[in-house]
Amino acid sequence: MRRALSGLALAGLLLTATACGSSGESSGGTESGADQVKVGVIPILDVAPIYLGKEKGFFTSRNIELTMEAGQGGAAIVPGVVSGQFQFGFSNMTSLLIAQTKNVPIKTVAAGVASTGEQGKDFGAVMVKADSPIKTAADLAGKKISVNTLKNIGDTTVRESVRKAGGDPKSVAFVEMPFPNMPAALQDGQVDASWVVEPQLSQVKAAGGRLVASNFVDAAPGLTVAAYFTSAKLAGEDADLVKRFTEAINESLTYAGSHPDEVRAVLGSYTKIDEKTRGELILPKWPTEINQASVETLAKLGEQDGIFDGATPDVSKILP
């Protein structure tokens, strides 16, 4: 499970997409006249609303025949949208900011997922073993912490937790590994701490793990973690489709936020999370508005931490 996109991977895949001479285009209509729309997603908790919205008919009612396709991590989704493989995609905001600094022609169309904003009660956190000498985020300085992708939203938000607690954020050593591997790596002592999201967060807690930082909460109030986006070409050429898709996503986000039991149920349709674990997950927030101030903060933190290789992201160019 990878929700992040490294700049290097993005550059390589974008070059491949560009070399193919393709561009963002609608995949056409069905015999019934509905627009066929394919969305590149990472099959994780964050995207439960789009699966739920499809079940509820929020897309078909807007003449959209929706399919979701799992990307090979976020690194495949941005180039997939630009090339026209997907009409829309889901990605974390830091990956989208990295894309913007590389002049990738994309635009967000709807919010995706947001932090709960509650310390100790968010869907992502930095965890340590129960007997770890690490007591606070400041103690993470000089330690090895696992993240799913280097130089992305995990790094910069964890560094902010360390910085706010009075530690040296530059001394943290990040280790890249898939989220599902992190509970065992933490238990075996391969790392001193792990940044995990649900369901691995619940898994680490069940094994006796202890929370030392809510890094999304520390990064910015009401942090918008991810968003749905499309290519600038499709946004310019088929504004009606983008409008209908955005309306359907927003209805899906609102419905998911007020029907947590149905969210937990739909997770069983596209993940392997068992029923018991689904019942224990901390669910994120699914607001319909992107918190621009939080994205600007994320951009500043990323710039400060060297996420953008010296470039300064222009937040206004990716927001709706």
Automatic annotation (TrEMBL):
Keyword field contains Kinase: no
Protein name: NitT/TauT family transport system substrate-binding protein
Pfam families for the chain: NMT1
First and last residue of the signal peptide: 1-19
Sequence similarity: Belongs to the bacterial solute-binding protein SsuA/TauA family.
InterPro entries in UniProt: SsuA/THI5
Residue stretches making up the SsuA/THI5-like domain: 46-262
SUPFAM superfamilies reported in the protein's UniProt record: Periplasmic binding protein-like II
